[in-house]
Amino acid sequence: MTREEIRGEVLEILKDIAPDEDLSNLDDKASFREQMELDSMDFLDIVMELRKRHRVQVPEDDYVELASMESTVNYLEPLMKDIQKV
Amino acid sequence: MISQTPDSQRIVLTGVGLTSPNGNRLADYREALLQGRSGVQEYEIRYVGKTLAGVCDFDELKYQKRRAVRRGTRAGSIAVYCANESIIDSGLDWANVDRERVGIYIGLTEHGNVETENEIFEISGYDYDTSVWTHHHNPRTVANNPAGEVTLNMGITGPHYTIGAACAAGNAGLIQGAQQLLLGECDVAIGGGVSESIHTFGIFAGFASQGALAAHEDPTRASRPFDRDRNGIVVSEGGCLFTLERFDDAKARGAKIYGELAGYAMNSDASDFVLPNPKQQARCMRMALERAKMGIADVGILSTHATATSSGDIQECIALREILDRDGPTLVNNTKSFIGHAMGAAGSLELAGNLPSLEDGVCHATINVENLDPECDLPGLTLHEPRETKGIDTILNNSFGMLGINSVVVIKKV
Fold first, then answer.
1. Out of A17, A18, A51, whose CB is closest to B131?
2. Which of residues 254-293 of B touch A (CB under 8 A)?
3. Chain A residues near residue B71 by CB distance under 8 angstroms
4. How many CB atoms lie within 10 A of CB B297?
5. Which chain A residues have a beta carbon less than 8 Å from that of B136?
6. In this structure, what are the phi and psi dihedrals at residue B105, rounded to the nearest 5 degrees?
7. Domains and CATH numbers, chain B
8. Which of A80, B165, B213, B404 is 20 to 30 A from B64 via CA?
9. Which of helix, strand or coil describes residue B305?
10. Residue of A18, A44, A52 with shortest CB distance to B67
11. pLDDT for A8-47, tens place per residue?
């Protein structure tokens, strides 16, 4: 997947776990938590959905990498580069 | 005499919040019961396939955000809806109520089956890899879940828990709320029952294996307690939570009062896992009446538990014959004939549907009895059409469950 495709996948996950949020103006550089109501269970949802949808394993020590859209895509890019977008 | 009981030791019902397969407000639900409108429909659930159920159509998003609905359970959403509706209906100045003095007591038949089944089904798509088992599983399936969701939604910091009481749970939640008020553990109690059971295939499959799952070509005629041709239970979802207060508090704020909990009782059969014991059911009714300092002649409406299983209906009728006077004034009805068996919510929903009788004097009917089973030919049985009376002062509400759990509440007009 390209960076843009990975961003799209993460956005889809966010839409599912934060269905009340308007994500159309998401600032990729700002942290998710600054922009929407997300708690630790929601972050676990992001990890879980990456595992379920793309078989990507995010170890607990790396959860900090999922702070913003930009840092998440940076982190996922090497892990998802060989995955084909369905 | 009950009149000598201090007002601080009298418990009254000041709010009703409900969702039933045939109504999402007491007024609509009552109208459906008076008009003979069933809430049973065709329904399909995994593995079992096509069956029948009572399904509620309340707006989950009226009091919850989508995120809370997604994270929580159906029982939680039902409880949140009913609790909010009940508090609004009570007229309490909620913004100024001390939330630490509010207690939530919700009766359940079961909890966790729905969420566990869903998750097992989900991981079946991942070759049963438990590493994709949701982290939401435990907070969804802890037994206090529906009551806890109410506290989160309404900012209530007083006690909350659920009461596991099989199909006696709706009465049990009400009784628990009253007891906690009497103990001074809270000043406002939200008590009753909820059920999400139509979302677990296991309950349908279990009743089917027991030969106790209703089937009928016309869903609205499927739930037929006391009918000779009944063939089992229609499972329903729903909820009904009452706002309960001590009478002195309710009076001081000029609250509308639906009725007073004049007496109650719970006991056990200690005789069988599923077959009810009429002696113990009758004993439970007598205990409730004794506590209310009443006789059966004081009871205007006796709301039966009967679920439309042959053994259950007949056993309850044996108990009722011990209690009822052949020529007494008591009218007998059954709400499951309209809405099916709402499990943990059944007791409270069935009471709620009869509560307006204390004001309008009308006893709603029992529908779907085309050929009355002679063994269920009870004195006062109100069939087909509602019956108008000169006035109803007292309702006795039966609610019984598996493992031989019995509950009876007696509500009187204030």
1. A51
2. none
3. 41
4. 13
5. 41
6. -135, 100
7. 11-252 (3.40.47.10), 263-412 (3.40.47.10)
8. B165
9. coil
10. A18
11. 999 999 999 999 999 999 999 999 999 999 999 999 999 9
* pLDDT bucket at B1, cuts 50 / 70 / 90: very low
* Residue among B65, B126, B135 minimizing CB distance to A44: B135
Among the listed residues B391, B401, B396, B335, the one whose alpha carbon sits nearest the alpha carbon of residue B367: B335
Q: Evaluate whether A13 touches A46 at the Cβ level (below 8 Å).
A: yes
Which structure tokens are listed for A36? 């929407």
Q: What value does the mean pLDDT of chain B take?
A: 97
Residues of chain B contacting A18 with CB distance shorter than 8 Å: 67
Its ipTM equals 0.94
The neighbouring-strand residues paired with B13 are B244, B259
Touching check for B131 and chain A: CB below 8 Å? yes
Distance from CA of B125 to the nearest CA of A (A): 10
Nearest chain A CA: its distance from B69 CA (Å): 10
Q: Is B48 exposed, middle or buried (0-12, 13-18, 19+ CB in 10 A)?
A: middle
Q: Is B50 exposed, middle or buried (0-12, 13-18, 19+ CB in 10 A)?
A: exposed
The answer to whether A41 contacts B70, with C-beta atoms less than 8 Å apart, is no
* Residue A53 sits at the chain B interface (C-beta within 8 Å): no
Answer whether B130 touches A (CB < 8 Å).
no
Q: Which domains does chain A have, with CATH numbers?
A: 3-80 (1.10.1200.10)
Cα B165 to Cα B268, B294, B399, B401, B402: the distances in Å are 11, 26, 10, 7, 8
Average pLDDT of the residues in B38-66: 98
Nearest-Cα residue of chain A relative to residue B126: A52
Helix (H, G, I), strand (E, B), or coil: what is residue B93?
A: coil
Whole-angstrom distance, CA of residue B199 vs CA of residue B182 = 36
Distance CA B139, CA B133 (A): 13
Rounded to a whole number of angstroms, the CA Rg of chain B reads 20
Which of A16, A17, A51 is nearest residue B132 as measured by Cβ atoms? Answer: A51
Beta strands in A9-75 (DSSP E): none
C-alpha span between B266 and B28 (Å, rounded):
30
CA atoms within 13 A on the CB side of A80: 27
How far is Cα B151 from Cα B103, in angstroms, rounded to an integer? 9
Angle of helix B346-354 relative to helix B26-35, nearest 10 degrees? 80
B117, B119, B112: which is closest to B134 by C-alpha? B119
